[in-house]
Give the backbone structure.
Amino acid sequence: MLTTFRITAVLEGISYLMLFAISMPLKYWAGIREPNIYIGYAHGALFIAYLLFAIIFWMEKKWTIKRLFILVLASLLPFGTFYMDKKYLKPLQSEQ
């Protein structure tokens, strides 16, 4: 479960950056809308999966509500999921 959550977090972060760095400039500066549609769908699905994993993982580990807030906030900030993975999830991987 932890490995799946970590992979989802990294993929969600990559899709978020792709949305801002690639598809939004193409849409608004070049008038090319198609990449925004596909990257947007992928990001939306990964965002929902990330949030579901975050809630399940939070309940499983019995963390505080503050930790859940950090997990959710990380999904809203660029590079947030990468930081969250390194700070909170990677140390758990080494414990197993």
Q: What stands out?
A: The chain has one domain: 2-95. The chain has four helices and no strands.
